[in-house]
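Ticket #4471: structure output looks truncated?

Reporter: J.K.
Steps to reproduce: submitted the chain below (365 residues) through the standard prediction queue, then opened the result file.
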Amino acid sequence: MWKFGLAAAAATAVALSAEASSFDLGVNAHYGLDSNEKIAELMIERNFKVLRMGLYWDQDQTAFRDLAARLKANGGRSQGVLQISYQWDHRCNQNLPWVENDAYNQTVAAVDKVKDVVHDFELLNEVQLRPEIQREVRWNSARTSAAPYEGKPCIATMVGVQRGMSRAIADLRVRSGLPLRVIVGVVGRDFGWLTFLRSKGVQWDVTGFHVYPLHQHRSLLNDLWYGPGGPLEQLASFGKPVHINEMNCGEIYRSDYENRAGGPATETCLKSLARHLKELRSQSALLESVHLYSLTDDPSKAAPENRFGLMYDLETPKPHLYLASAFAGGALSPHERLEITSRGLLSEAELPSRRSAADVLPPAR
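Returned output as attached by the reporter:
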C-alpha cells in the first residue's frame, strides 16, 4: 500500500449505471480458520467476486485452501500473492542461476499445494519499493525507460527471482492442464520496469497495479503524470488484462485521517473512492478486476497501515463497505442505501437493484 503524488486537477465523472461494475470488484483480506466462514459470507452478500491474499510458501496452507475453496464453491475466485523467501531477503545474491532455480523450486512448492482452488499468482509484492531496488533506481524516476535498470546487481537478483517464479507457474500450468496465470505488478509510474522484465525473459499473463488517488487528483483515465495517455494507456501497452489489485483513497494516508464517519478527511475519502471508481467503469475492455485494500482494519499495525478497511472488523462495517457493495452490485439495506445517497456519492438511480442478504446467501450446509 503506497501513496504517490499525481498532478492535481478536476475531472468529469463517467456516468454509473444501476448495475454492477463492468469489472469484477474484489477485496484484499487475511484468512484464518476462525474467520473464513464470515469472510466468505460477506463476499457473497456484497457480491465481491475475487479475493487477494498472501500465499506463504513454507507455511501450512489449510486455512488458505479453506477460504479459497469456499469462494470457488460459490462462484468466486482467489489470487495468491506469492511470498517466497525472497520477499524478505534483501541480500542481492549474485549467484543468479542458483537464485533463479531456488525461486523456481519455492514457487512450485507453494503453488502445487493450492493450484486446484487458486489459478492466479502474483510474483511477490511491490518489488519496486524494496530498499535495495530503490538504492539502484529511485522510485518514479525511470518512467517508461528500461535503461536505468541495466547493469544493477540487486535488480539482476530480483529479475532472476521473478523469472524463476514465472517459469515455475508456466511449467505447472502445462503439467496440470489448469489455467494458471502469472501476475506481475507495477507501482507508480515506472512502467519501464515491466519493459525491462519482459526483455529479460520474465513472462506474465496479467499486469497488476496499485493506486491510492486523492479526490483532487486527475482522472486515472488520462493523468499524464504517469506518462503519455495516463496510467491505463501505459498498462494497456503491454497487451495483458489489468488487475488494480490494491486501491483505496489517498486521503487515508493523511495524518489527520479520522477513520470515522463524519470526519472531514474520512468523508473526502468516500468521495474520492466514488469518483475514481465511477471513472474506471468505462475501462471494461482493459480492467478485469479492481481489489479494494482491504476488507478490515488491522489494529496490530501502526498508522496509517491500521485503518485501510472497509470495515473496522468483520462485524462492524464502515460506509466504505456500503459504497463498495453498490459498485459491486451487492446487497444493501435501506439504511445502507441512505448512507450512500445522503452523502451524494451515488444517486438512488445509480444504486443496484434492491437486494437483501437473504436473496444472495447460499443455503446452509
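Triage note (M.O.): checked the attachment and the full C-alpha cell line is present. DSSP finds eleven helices and ten strands in the chain.
Status: closed, working as intended.
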